[in-house]
Amino acid sequence: MIEMIKVNKYFAAFHVLKDIDLLVSRGEKVVVCGPSGSGKSTLIRLVNRLEEHQSGKVVVDGIELTDDVKKTDMVRREVGMVFQSFNLFPHLTVLQNLTLAPIWVKRVSRKEAEDTAMHFLARVRIPEQAHKYPSQLSGGQQQRVAIARALCMKPKLMLFDEPTSALDPEMIKEVLDVMVELAREGMTMMVVTHEMGFARTVADRVIFMDEGRIVEAAPPADFFSAPKTDRAKLFLSQVLGH
Amino acid sequence: MRWARENLFRSWPETIATLLVLWLLWKTIPPFIDWAFLDAVWRPDSKACRASEGACWGFVAEKHRFILFGTYPYELHWRPALATVILIGLWVFSAFRAFWKSWLVAVWAVGLAVIGILMWGGVFGLRYVENERWGGLILTLLLTTFGIAAAFPLGILLALGRRSDMPVIRALSVGYIELIRGVPLISLLFMASVMLPLFLPSGVTIDKLLRAQIAIILFAAAYLAEVIRGGLQAIPKGQYDASHALALPFWRRTYLIILPQALRIAVPALVNNFIALFKDTSLVLIIGLFDLLSTVKISLNEPAWTGFGVEAYLIASLIYFVFCAAMSTYSKSFEVRR
To answer: Which pairing describes strands A55-60 and A2-11: parallel, antiparallel, or unpaired?
Structure first.
């Protein structure tokens, strides 16, 4: 599903990602963790080309990401993304947020788009909020709307960039529950998160990053019980310590 | 009494300020009422006016048709009058959100066509009136209407161009905006009226009114572009991320996500510019077009009425004020509500 070979990424002179090799197969759930500044957000944003890489190869669903805008758009139609700060469209209602891309990008009818939207709103358990504006919802509700918005495009792959980091503690669970459910249904997922409980429950593989490199990649059971590097041990002690 | 003590005389400086304001009001309001009403001359009689201490409303009464309609043929004044009413009607009609449907464009098209027929004539047995003779309020309103209608989209394009990734488009936009902003409107009007005809091939003429209109549009667009750019810059990067992630192509993203938010942020500054544009149209005076303010000025040239400028300008200011106040009051309903 995702194939990265020798990928390098720079922000001006700063070398953010160094020789990244990564394979994610269909149906796999990968959790990416690591200290801040380790390049995990940049890594996930390469997958739908919100960031451009300078060397190496990124192939998503058989399409290589290059300067070709058409190919980028093809990939973006198949890849849903959820952001740390929700990024809902504040001037549109929840329902309009959900139907906008299906109507304007996938060209489905308004009726069909609204049916799909209501279906996914029910799935994230907030169908009654359809006609409210994002600012009228709690953070947890907004993030669930954001998940539903991505799902309305019927993606093959879902990217989550720290989806719970901007939430109050009591709202984290309602978002994670939705994500766990999604994982159980077989969605391919790449998740940047510090929620190690989530990683333990759903991840097939945990990827630990530090200073722009993938330092460790292992099933959660192995990673949590026996991290190989000192850097990972230190990180785990800090994350799990409280 | 209690209210007065709490709000007007709470401390010594406040008491002094209150008394000062009261004294100023006492010094200005009664004399103004004396001048404007009690001592005023209401008959159009310039001798009586000169003899009196008060305002000479007779002058306004005598000249109001020239002030409102300029040099438009006197017996045909009903045509610009009706056109003015229709144009204001169109604006008021468009102010209701319930009417923001696609047929509103058709309503405007029909309305403007009727205005055109009324003003020019030449059909349906109406006498033809060349637009050199149009003047007064309708000229101000038409210049403003078409000025806003054309400068606004042009300004949006320039603002988008200035933020474009494409170097040529960006350079052109920046060049245009900086060039136009660096020049006073008056010189643009002069250029449009004097220099533009020199560049046109012989035989091609664009009339004076159109040239002035184009100058106003080009001028306003540069200013609007910068205001809109300010709104664009205020939009969080996450909005772009989300629209990219949803694969929205450029124009859809711009039209559906970015502009609705950017323009709402820019409302106060936009209205500021619209009001400025409305008042700037009075500069067409210098190239010999008679807008509302010019007609006031010209009506004062008549020997019998020289010296009664205050009354006439007061009325003109009042008309300008009513329109500007309407614009700014209405715009409040668009400002970002959070």
So the answer is: antiparallel
Inform me whether the pLDDT recorded for B338 exceeds 50.
no
Q: Do A91 and B261 touch (CB under 8 A)?
A: yes
Selected residue of B246, B250, B259, B337 to mutate for chain A interface (largest A Cβ count, 10 A): B246
Measure B161 CA to nearest chain A CA, in Å: 19
**How large is the greatest C-alpha to C-alpha distance in chain A, in angstroms?**
55
Q: Which residue has the tokens 């004539």?
A: B121
Which residue does chain B place closest to A92, by CA atoms?
A: B257
The nearest alpha carbon in chain B to A76 belongs to B247
Q: B182 or B198: whose pLDDT is higher? A: B182
Burial label for A94, CB within 10 Å (0-12, 13-18, 19+), is buried
| Cβ neighbours of B69 (radius 10 Å) | 27
For residues A212 and A16, the answer to whether their CB atoms sit within 8 Å is yes
| Highest mean pLDDT (candidates A213-217, B12-16, B81-85) | A213-217
* pLDDT value of position B13: 87
Query: Residue A108, Cβ neighbours under 10 Å: how many?
Result: 18
In DSSP terms, which residues pair with A11 in a beta bridge? Answer: A14
Q: Which whole number is the average pLDDT over B111-134?
A: 82
The encoded tokens of residue B31 equal 């004399």
Q: Which residues of B touch A79 (CB under 8 A)?
A: 245
ipTM over 0.95 threshold = no
* Closest chain B residue to the Cα of A47, Cα to Cα: B245
Which residue from A76, A89, A91 is facing B247, i.e. has the nearest CB?
A76
User: Could B244 and A50 be called an inter-chain contact, meaning their C-beta atoms sit closer than 8 Å?
Assistant: yes
A36 lies within 8 A of chain B by CB: no
Q: Measured between alpha carbons, how far is B220 from B224 in angstroms, rounded to an integer?
A: 6
B128 vs A97: CA distance, rounded Å? 54
Listed residue (A195, A211, A158) closest to A39, CA to CA: A211
For tokens 């054309």, the residue is B150
* pLDDT tens figures, B206-241: 778 888 888 899 999 999 999 999 999 999 999 999
B205 versus A2: which is more confidently predicted?
Answer: A2
The DSSP line for A7-20 is EEEEETTEEEEEEE
- Non-local (6+) Cβ contacts of A167 within 8 A are A139, A140, A143, A175
- For chain A, percent of residues with pLDDT exceeding 70: 99
Question: Could you tell me which residues are beta bridge partners of residue A55?
Answer: A8
- Chain B residues touching residue A73 (CB < 8 angstroms): 247, 249
